[in-house]
């Protein structure tokens, strides 16, 4: 898990369906389930024994309204290929063209529960 000064960091994502969300995010992130869905929670962790941030899925009946105040960024060298891969996993693209800012290019997508996340290509490095 990813430590911080006084413990471990986890990101909690509200979802309507634990199984559907786990199927989506394990494929997209290359994570695995830690335990089984029980009640309202399901933990997803990096597939390897290396460091990473736990993604804790939290089942909620609350409907999503408006833009997420916190979202995940997936940084990649091949924007088009990664967007296509994530869409094939069940995401939908919200932006018709990539957003471009300070050399960064990205698309805004949503997972099957409507949670926004971005797929970004960093600016080229200069030598």
UniProtKB/TrEMBL annotation:
Residues 7-122 form the VOC domain. InterPro entries: Glyas_Bleomycin-R_OHBP_Dase, Glyoxalase_6, VOC_core. Transmembrane segments: none annotated. It comes from the Bacteria. CDD domains: VOC. Pfam families: Glyoxalase_6. This is VOC family protein.
